[in-house]
Amino acid sequence: MKLLGLTPEQHFTQPPPRYTEATLIRELEEKGIGRPSTYAAILDNIQEREYVAKEKGRLFPTELGCLVTDLLVMNFQDIFDVRFTAQMEDELDKVEEGELRWTQALEDFYQPFQKDLEKAKVEMEDIKWKGIATDLICEKCSAPMVIKLGRHGQFLACSNYPDCKNTKEFQRNDAGEIQVIEAEPMQETCEKCGAPMVIKTGRFGKFLACTNYPQCKNTKKMMVNGEGRLEVAQDEVSSEVCEKCGSPLVVKTGRFGKFLACSKYPECKNTKRVGQEGKGKEDGSKPEPTGEDCEECGAPLVYRKGRFGPFIACSNYPRCRYTKKIAKTPDPAKVPAEAAAASKPQPTKPREARPDKTQGVETRTRKKRA
After folding, report:
1. pLDDT for 206
2. Which residue in 11, 17, 22, 147 is deepest, having the highest Cβ count within 10 Å?
3. Highest mean pLDDT among 144-153, 244-253, 350-359
4. What residue ranges do the domains of the chain occupy?
């Protein structure tokens, strides 16, 4: 035979596509896991707990999801078997139909589960505290680094904690090897200790931190400018002056919104709430004195309001935290009007008379007799 032509072709095996929400539900239906009433809860849980991340409509496992799955499958092989889950669903259906006692179904499940639970308490790795050992060495104390699980995922930490609090972020390459993410240097110097500052990532995004941590805990907020680059966010200086030390107050942002803080922090920790016009808002009028002195420090006592009503407190707060309750029958001349009104018992409304239910009964009886 004469060769007419030869076309070389090369094909690579492609991995199966990632699940979408629809294909995952279809897979659960085929394997008998869950019921239509629980599919939505399953999808919500794996995404809210960050076991998977949804990208372009497809579900990708996260580092946290892989770690949790590996630990559970390793220590609870019976429960995390697909056949076991499908068998439990069938038993629940039999309980609903009256073919199986619920106590028997619960006993069949709990006996092997209790054995696995006791075994896991001894053999299961405590990732949160001990961590997973690595070949990396801490550059500060030469102790081995371990992988720990935090609120925002996995991170590298020194095994000599709490004596050494060195931590690092990391990522894995295609081969699964650990690659340390070095902190990005900035041409910024800490104004408190003179050490260089680096970019780090926290719960609210990227920020500048002093390299002399934990001796120096100075940080600076960062923002994206109009060109899409990160730059240091400058504190907005207000026109007000701190009444405690005379330094200018600056506008800062906290967990409850914007507030005014002293620029000499942490030497001065004076703060104020920001009003609607952007100026400092006083917490209220000056507390009214009671005419008595504090038993602990001798400072005048004043009336204050709390979540449980008015009370008496030392005017030297927070240096002195002495407090006491207001007497049930205070002197009206000493207690301010607001405190007296709050402590005065409110009159109760008279109870309305209930309708007489026997009237209708008598009427119906008379009709029957008639």
Report:
1. 77
2. 147
3. 244-253
4. 21-123, 125-182, 236-281, 289-342
Distance, in Å, from the CA atom of 202 to the CA atom of 208, rounded to the nearest integer, reads: 10
Helical ranges in the chain per DSSP H: 21-30, 36-48, 63-75, 82-97, 102-123, 337-343, 358-369
Q: Which residues pair with 60 in a beta bridge?
A: 53
Secondary structure class of 57 (helix, strand, coil):
coil
Token output for 272: 């104020």
Instruction: Give phi and psi for 121, each to the nearest 5.
Output: -60, -25
Contacts of 318-326 with C-beta under 8 Å, sequence gap 24+, read 320/294, 320/296, 322/294, 322/295, 322/296, 322/297
Instruction: Give every CB contact of residue 4 below 8 A, 6+ residues apart in sequence.
Output: none
pLDDT at 215 over 90: no
Q: In what order do the strands lie in the sheet containing 271-274? A: 236-241, 248-254, 257-262, 271-274, 280-281
Q: Any idea which residue has 């935290």 for tokens?
A: 321
- The residue among 259, 257, 264, 221 whose CA lies nearest residue 238 is 259
Q: Is 222 exposed, middle or buried (0-12, 13-18, 19+ CB in 10 A)?
A: middle
Distance CA 46, CA 290 (A): 57
pLDDT in tens, 42-57: 999 998 888 888 888 8
CATH number among 1.25.40, 1.10.3470, 3.30.65, 3.40.50, domain 125-182: 3.30.65
341's tokens: 């009104």
Distance CA 358, CA 10 (A): 94
CATH for the stretch 21-123: 1.10.460.10
Cis peptide before 144 (omega within 30 of 0): no
Task: Look up tokens 């002056």; give the residue.
Answer: 241
Q: What token pair was written down for 257?
A: 């919104």
